[in-house]
Amino acid sequence: MNVEEREILAFCAVAIVGGGTAGLSLATELRHLGVGDVVVIERETEAGGVPRHCGHYPFGLREYGRLMKGPDYARRNVAEAQEAGVRVLTGTAVTGLHPGGVLDLSGNAGSARLSALRVVLCTGVREASRAQRFLGGDRPPGVVATGTLQDMVYLKGLRPFDRPVILGSELVSLSAIMTCRHLGITPLAMIEEEERLIARPLFRPFPALMGVRLHTGVRDLRIHGRDRVEAVSFFDRYGGAVSLETDGVIVSGRFRPEAALISDSHLERDPGTGGPVVDQFGRCSDPSYFAAGNLLRAAETSGWCWREGVDTARRIVADIARYGVQPATNAPLPIQFSHPALRFVVPQGIAPGGSQGAMVQMQLGLERPFSGRLVARSAGKVLWSGRLSGAPVRRVLAPLAPILHARLSAPVDLALE
Amino acid sequence: MSQKHFDVLVIGGGVVGCAMARHFTLAGASVALLEKAPDVLDGASKGNSAILHTGFDAPPDSLELACIQRGHALYLRDHAGLQLPILRTGALVLAWNAEQMAKLPALIAKGQANGVSDIRMLSRAQILAREPHLSETVVGGFEVPGEVVIDPWTTAHVYLLQAMANGATLLRSAEVLSGDFDGAHWRLRTSADEITGKQVINCAGLYGDIVDTALLGESTFFIRPRKGQFLVFDKAASRLSSSILLPVPTDKTKGIVICPTIFGNLLVGPTAEDQDSRTDASTDRETLESLRMTGKRMLPGLASFEVTAAYAGLRPACAAPGYQVRRVPDMNYVSVGAIRSTGLSAALGLAEQVAEMLGRGDHVPMIDPQMPEVERLSDYHGRDWQEPGYGEIVCHCERVTRREIDRVLAGPMPPRSLQGLKRRTRVCMGRCQGFYCRGTVAQICGDRLDMPQEDAA
Fold first, then answer.
1. How close A143 comes to chain B (CA, Å)?
2. Residue contact A109–B388, C-beta within 8 A
3. By mean pLDDT, which of A190-199, B153-162, B166-175, B355-364 is the weakest?
4. Domain map of chain A by residue range?
5. CATH number of A129-253
6. Contact at CB, B386 and A111, closer than 8 angstroms
7. Hey, is the C-beta of A266 within 8 angstroms of any chain B C-beta?
8. Of A108, A127, A130, which is closest to B390 when you measure between CB atoms?
9. Mean pLDDT, chain A, as a whole number?
10. Does residue A220 sit at the B interface (CB-CB below 8 Å)?
11. Does residue A219 register a pLDDT over 70?
12. What pLDDT was estimated at residue A8?
């Protein structure tokens, strides 16, 4: 069917693509701020996002003042949005993004186009697949991500395996142990290619306490089995060949934005984050579009995404108040870097027009552990310099205000020294 | 199975066996297809590059060339009626250095001698104008417009489904163990049932020599599988090339190809690794990394795209050159062996060839055969999700609907396993590789698959 010839069937003030934590808090806040017609478009049959299948604590402490499990937190976010008058369209997929805030929608009832003053992309994250990790070996079924396992266990009541191994050692990998324990099983082993567990030092004793064997610094990891997973093999850190008989592999972590819509659209994508290029207000390269939540960078906590949704809602209201129907042309000055330890920075650019209501921090992604100084310069002048230390996957922040307050006439250069 | 005696017993449910079953069914014969695996397309036909070849580089005057060209023509003739898609990409054979450049004239002459008349030499500037994302290190090349991209699995499924819609019988999990020929009829003992028929056609692919030995006592060829690893790049990478990009072939292999898929991805592969195992279709990181490097050398833009999937296929190669097609007249037996890497292109031609070898017989061809119901999986043609009433989109990466999954599960050839469901619908085969939908798919399938992967908790 010809997209160009279809007429626009619906209008709304703000359309939010993705009904997870960020999308729902953003929508709710927009209504609280008096925006008339706010629509959340959720492709799943139920809104709520990732927390829906995180059947464990801790969620919601800062948002709702009490400790909640993921599914309760997701339900609460949906209820808050609906109470605030947000229209939540479930079972509706966005199948195309067009310039100026026009969306193609598809649902059981048919296709439609929706035009909004502003569109916000809140499509979240997923874990890397085995293919994206270049894991070798056979390709039996029974190799699943943590998120998939949680969906199977907590929402579908399924039991995919009895003695799996876990690949990866991020926080989410520990969550995979908990999900297994919910099934009454203990994973055989946790396998990590890095020399040390990636999770923060505080959590590192956890797998051993749970009776899960650890193998770090492994090489040449392979999956074996034809119709089912039968074993994994690898060389351990001492070079010894190890083979573990197992019936499932949980491929955990290495989150990346679910940015398929952006890849297929006119919006600029940052290869570093995998998500959209945004300015300090969360505006994309087409200023009718904003983005918030883990789509911006993989991956932050639900609490962070919730807060980011609220903040972005305020920026959108200010943006509409200032520019109205026709958003500002967005020509930000890029924040650039060439240091090999640095993988990404959010925002990717600074738009003229100031600092009010903008992000207060840069979020940095590291390629490898680093400890030293971060220096931000523009046209040779130092804007800010300060200590920076961190590791891949961890939260690494630096102040954005000194950059925003400088009257920039040239790109910002970040250096690690 | 009510009937146990057939005119034709086809052994092997790969693309060649499926085409064979269709051809003989439409020619009026009663046909049974025996597949040793729980599902069809479980061997060599599971992983190929999905190109419909013209035969421009096939061995001159060979049976392979004849079957490829006839198969190509028959596909073009029949695909619309069977609702099978074509992506008319054409191919560019590219030279990257002077030595390869020097080989082009001979390749073009060979192609023309093979009857491919529309080959056209292109200058470096013409090539870069047509494919602007190609590395500027390309030196020259030529165009083969007739090389096109098709759907590797639906094609074979539809051949078999049409056979079944017109009376053919499919027996899965039926490995042929032994058999006797009494001068008029074959009696085959399989891992499932005993079955009899007048004529046996061995299309067992990777196991062709083993089946010959089991039934004839000897085989005139020995399969030495050749593994090919592939990388499937993100759909967004498909904008980097609208053509099939072929290297200048060496004596041993056609080399690493970059190829659009009908599902909207970009494929890089295959390697050519000779091995003894008939089952080991494993991938390894080192090879996958080198495929990525090879891809990036030809299309530098690939560097910024993610890989969606990696897989390996096994070609049923053998030491002797060419196809090993042999009729044993006094045994009512035809062996269709060593259909190495061109089976998808040649299948319809091979079926016709085998039928000619056997002669007309006393069957009456069908005048108005039934057309099977076909799943439309091509990203370049209309899909099910574009029609209302689909229930929900279950797999968002590939936009597979609940209606499609239900239809396939209730269809005449339901999948037995998740892999079979994936080949029939593309569910779990997209960017997230099942991250989002794997649980829902498991729930939908429930006890409707014979080989479920999950138990109820």
1. 10
2. yes
3. B355-364
4. 1-127+255-326, 129-253, 331-417
5. 3.50.50.60
6. yes
7. no
8. A108
9. 94
10. yes
11. yes
12. 65
Q: What is the mean pLDDT of residues A181-200?
A: 94
Closest CA to A286 of A266, A312, A311: A266
| Smallest CA–CA distance from B397 into chain A, residue | A260
Spatial contact of A262 and A275, defined as CB atoms under 8 Å apart: yes
Interface of A with B in 43-102 (CB under 8 A): 43, 45, 91, 93, 95
Structure letter (DSSP) for residue A152: I
Residue A259's closest chain B neighbor by CA? B431
Which of B382, B432, B439 lies nearest to residue A129, judging by beta carbons? B432
pLDDT tens-place string over residues A23-69: 999 999 999 999 999 999 999 999 999 999 998 889 999 999 999 99
A138 interaction partners in chain B (CB closer than 8 Å): 280-282
Examine residue A299 and say whether the peptide bond preceding it is cis (omega within 30 degrees of 0). Answer: yes
Q: What's the confidence (pLDDT) of residue A6?
A: 53
Nearby residues of A111 by Cβ (< 8 Å), 6 or more positions away: A1, A6, A95, A104, A105, B386, B388
Q: What is the CATH number of domain B5-48+152-222+320-358?
A: 3.50.50.60
Tokens representing A129 are 């697949």
Q: Is the separation of the CB atoms in A364 and A370 below 8 Å?
A: no
Partners of B227 on chain A (C-beta within 8 Å) are none
Closest in B399, B433, B455 to A131, CB measured: B433
Q: What are residue B140's DSSP bridge partners?
A: B95
The span from the CA of B262 to the CA of B89, in Å, is 10
Query: Are A67 and A73 within 8 A, CB to CB?
Result: no
Yes or no: domain B384-448 corresponds to CATH 1.10.10: yes
Nearest by Cα to B392 from A90, A51, A258, A264: A90
Taking residues B193-209, what's their average pLDDT? 97
pLDDT per residue as tens digits for the range B20-69: 999 999 999 999 999 999 999 999 999 989 999 999 999 999 999 999 99
Per CB-CB distance under 8 Å, the chain B contacts of A45 are 392
Residue of A nearest to B436 (CA): A148
Chain A residues with CB-CB distance to B284 below 8 A: 136-137, 220, 222
CA of B437 vs chain A CAs: smallest distance (Å) = 8
pLDDT at A3: 43
Q: How far apart are CA A336 and CA A411, in angstroms?
A: 7
Q: What is the ipTM of this complex?
A: 0.95
Picking from A6, A52, A95, A108 by the largest number of B CB atoms within 10 A of its own CB, the best residue to mutate is A108
Instruction: Please check whether residue A278 is in contact with residue A284, taking contact to mean a CB–CB distance below 8 angstroms.
Output: yes
Q: Nearest by CB to A108, which of B304, B309, B392?
A: B392
CATH C-level class of A1-127+255-326: alpha beta
Tally C-beta pairs within 8 A across A and B: 133
Q: Could you tell me the fold of the domain covering B91-145+224-315?
A: D-Amino Acid Oxidase; Chain A, domain 2 (3.30.9)
Shortest CA distance from A153: residue in chain B: B457
DSSP SS3 for B353: helix
pLDDT tens for each residue of B302-353: 998 999 999 999 999 998 889 999 999 999 999 999 998 899 999 999 999 9
Please write the tens of the pLDDT for every residue from B382-410. 999 999 999 999 999 999 999 999 999 99
Rounded CA gap, B213 and B393, in Å?
48
